[in-house]
Amino acid sequence: MNMMAWWHITGWGFAALALAALLVGFSKTAVSGANTVSLAIFAAVLPARASTGVLLPLLIAGDVLAVLTYRRHAHWPTLWRLFPAVAAGVVLGTVFLVWADDGVVRTSIGAILLLMAGVTVWRRRTAEATDEPDAVATRSGRIKARSYGVLGGFTTMVANAGGPVMSLYLLSAGFRKLGFLGTSAFFFLIVNVAKVPFSAGLGLIDGHSLLLDLALVAFVVPGALLGKWAVHRINQRLFEQLVIAATVVGGLQLLLR
Known about the structure:
By secondary structure, this protein is mainly alpha-helical. It has eleven helices and no strands.
């Protein structure tokens, strides 16, 4: 109760956070990008900047569950191409957080997500149906990987909103469902763990935030199990539509708040 009083959380507020934590687990093992809804709930219940520090350990818990579930399906050549650009994006995001207020952060991320969703829809309509992940080895593929990598690192640092950006990249690169989930699982586990020192240095993670995480992490597990059950019942086309729809909803939520 002291923890809830510290954060000024009502019973309904905690219930909303619990639902968001469950959705974190679901997004990690089923529809990546749906995580933006969790981001919006956390930012509504808690102070926007502080909410990113509370959410990060829950995301890492979901990442661990996703890696355990889909570790055999990761595409490591894609990951190695992405990491340098993502690191640059994380550094830019850290600098941005030093001076940007909550309104600037929300507007910037929302605009980026909607732009990326539009670009991805256009690319999917014009791409060949036989595109495979190895297409990222081309020059245009490398440029695309760097662009999305910087954006992904930036958005994941400032608002834990890198999921939709990287989801759109993996879709545009031609990943099928399991390869998509396996690659994104390792990607976000590594990136989110690397973000912890930056978030702690900015004061976004402290003893109070970790106590709240301890109360919420139990809800991530059933969400991940529900996602694991659901993903095998979603066909590829519906999977892609859900990812893009979740990205658009998250972007609109950030812009309209």
